[in-house]
Hints:
Blueprint: H1 27-33, H2 39-53, E1 60-64, E2 69-72, E3 76-81, H3 91-101, E4 107-109, H4 114-123, E5 127-132, H5 135-142, H6 146-157, E6 162-166, E7 169-173, E8 177-184, H7 186-192, E9 205-209, H8 229-247, E10 250-253, H9 256-267, H10 269-277, H11 282-302, E11 322-324, E12 362-365, H12 368-393, H13 406-415, E13 419-421, H14 422-431, H15 436-448, E14 452-456, E15 459-462
Parallel strand pairs: 1-10, 3-8, 3-9, 4-5, 5-8, 10-12
Antiparallel strand pairs: 1-2, 6-7, 11-12, 13-15, 14-15
Helix pairs in contact: 1-8, 2-3, 3-8, 5-7, 11-12, 14-15
Amino acid sequence: MIKDLNLREGQEDLRIVEHLDMQKLPESVQEMLSLAATPEEQDIILMATIAAASACVPNLYFHYGPTGKKYYANLQCFILAAAASGKGIANQALEMVRVIDDQYPMLIAGDSTLAAFYKALEEQGGCGYMHESEGSVITDIWRNAAANYNTALRKAAEHETISRNRVKGASEIRNPRLSMLLTGTFGQYKALVPSVENGYFSRLLTVVIRGTNPFDKRYVSSKGGQSAVPKIVGQRLLRTYERLMEGGEQEWSLTEAQKERLGEHLETEYGTLIGLLGDNFHSAVVRMAVQIERIAMVLSAMRGGENPHSMRGNEHTENPHIMRGNEHTEGRIPSGIMEEERKRGAANEDGMSGYYPDAKNEIILCRDEDYETAEMIGNKMLLHMAAAYRMIDGDAQECVPEIKPIDQRKVVFEQLKEAYALGELIQEAKSQGVSRSSAIRWNNEWIERGMVTKENHGIYRKVA
Length: 464
């Protein structure tokens, strides 16, 4: 949660997996996590797996916002880390996708000119997956075209039409659905996201990994063992991909209770980050709602090879998790769970089966455990993006620079009483190693942002 933020302790409060309930994760995600040897590797492989799997979930969509805009599963993620930090494990997710790409081409090389990128995306019907673990490759390619790539990726993140008009002719990619996983250093990240005001910052999930790992003496057997995991998971995803392609477009949705809970998070806990970081971070907070829904939808789809109820919601909740009707109107009453599991996928050769409703008037509702997992990931991702935000804002030059003291500002604020004197603030700040001038500046910022009001001379009160 946001209240756990304390970046002075290093990576600990940015960790994601250790805050998840492993038993609530899809089996395939658990298996991919088994490849990791450190907490940092766990977080890298988790986000790489979800980003890669998002390319393998065709035809599932949800509506979001007052206009009911249509979003698909596709996630774009950048893992920002120094050398020898374990980010190479992200390539295991690429091996997972290769299983599908062997039959249904979807990979787009990171080492592509902008023209080649457009051409590949066009040839694949606007869909694809870009995976690049060598940041220097994309830095070299994007040196002269980063701004144009930035625009193309931003539009793809929103499924907005990408149009081009060149001497050789005009082209248009409608409803692009691009998933992406990149790893690199801060300098490479900033080539793509030059400023916090840039619209792509809030659309790109950013994972910040600090520090390096000791020499790893592990080895993997070529017969089965860990090296087989990505291929096994890839085979399950292949079956999921084929079933979803056969069924046509299918609507997925959070339950009304989950939507309400997500809204409360945006209004309260997430609002704390806006207050601390400023209005430029607002778009990242608001768009995280879409990212959380995408993550939850990917988790739902990854259950496709596990059991007959994999794409159904919990049956022990007040509302059934299969609804009928395509209109998202408030107060809609679901018609009930299907009477029989006639849409159940045939048992797979590994003994697993999937559940994929194919009637166009059926809506798949999110399981509670998938929403809870996605929400926790979203909470932690906001902290990672806050770290990246502070790094960009500080124009740092290191591979993975020290994170600015957002933690000190928050710790000082939370240690103050509801009503406090300026002298108490200065004293508390001093105990945190913060100068008097910084404490006074922070106090003025809190007043400007409506977090604090001035009651009397030198006396201030927190706004509830």
